[in-house]
Amino acid sequence: MDKKRGIYIHMPFCVQKCNYCAFLSFKADGSPRKEYTDALEKEIKLRAALENEQGSKKIDTVYIGGGTPSVMDISTVSEMIKTLRRSFDIDEDAEFTLEANPATLGRKDGVMLAKLQAYKFMGINRLSMGVQSMDNDRLHFMGRIHTAENVARDMHFIRQKGFENVNLDLIFSVPGETAEDALSDLEKILALSPEHVSCYSLQIEEGTPFGDMAERGELVEVPDEEDRDTYHRICSRLKEAGYEHYEISNFARRSENDTDGRSVYRSRHNSLYWNMDEYIGIGLGASGFVNGVRYKNTSDLDEYFAAINEGRLPVAEEHVNTAFDNISEAVFTGLRRREGVSYEEAVSAYMKAHDAEDIDPQTDNDFRDFFWEVFSEAKPEAEAYAEKGLLIIDDTGLRLTKTGIDISNSIMSLFV
Hints:
- The chain is α/β, with parallel strands linked by helices.
- The chain has helices at 33-54, 74-87, 109-122, 136-142, 148-160, 179-190, 209-215, 224-240, 268-274, 301-309, 323-334, 343-351, 364-374, 379-387, 408-412; strands spanning 5-11, 13-14, 26-27, 59-66, 90-100, 126-132, 166-172, 196-201, 243-247, 250-253, 279-282, 287-290, 293-297, 315-320, 341-342, 391-393, 397-400.
- Helix 1 (33-54) packs across helix 10 and helix 12 packs across helix 13 (364-374).
- The chain is globular.
């Protein structure tokens, strides 16, 4: 049976850019927000028409990301979601996520409650909150507009409105921060009992205020050894608190409804990326992967509007995946998961490509042998990593060890 697809919708507007942010976003004030959501509705219809031509599939996840989607007017978001539901066959049980930054859901209690109620009415059933820290001085340093008190208040009203699936983001290894500081942040986040926690090491990117400060010598990155020590201590604490570490940076709370040892609170949408499943990207700079083709929309707002107004998709880049692209990406993304990647799923991804060899593996050994035939040049180095205790290679597949995660990019690059 064909797998279902996901949809990602990009909202590029924020109250202000954070000092570390290199994402495609810009300040909402003075930006054409209504014009943008009108254009999104048109792109939704264009994508749906193409989907119907190529054979539509059920939509299992919808993710509205940014930017900060929660700064958008409720009425415009509502109209966009109505268009989305009319245009695509969305599962009744679909995971429907909206990213929301603290202090953007409404400063007055009544306003926040009304906004959250509207989200529930639209069918949004999962919120992802960019908390990043629970220390007000660190939040100010990072350019965040909220406080730790805002986070606690927002979570109170989120729970009051019945949201039962909430992710909270944490950034660690902020310059000047110790491991104890990061763990203190984590304890305050755990006190809010989120169903999901995402933990990311701060990356200093060129073109950001932090990048400029680093170039001038005004900001010093946390050394790798300290960063990795903090990461492992965070992982241990989350495991102790009852969270499943299912992907390098992601943790889902265990519950009585879990099956096969997997938390029901795993992000279904993000899992699409790690499982080589298909997803439709809509909006400025959005990426998609449909019918073996990877595409990326233009990141230029004027070009985006021009394309939509001319009745065409705003695609800037398009690539038809080869069989090697598929198996390589399956390994690269699959190794991010704690269960790793099996030979069968990697070879199955290979076989989906238009230029795949005509093969018919029947047993685990067949899949394993073909896998290592494709990656014969990578095998000696992979086995060397395994001997060092960084990678586990067995009869069904391969996965990173706890220490292997620290050099994951080096190991994954063997298969690219």
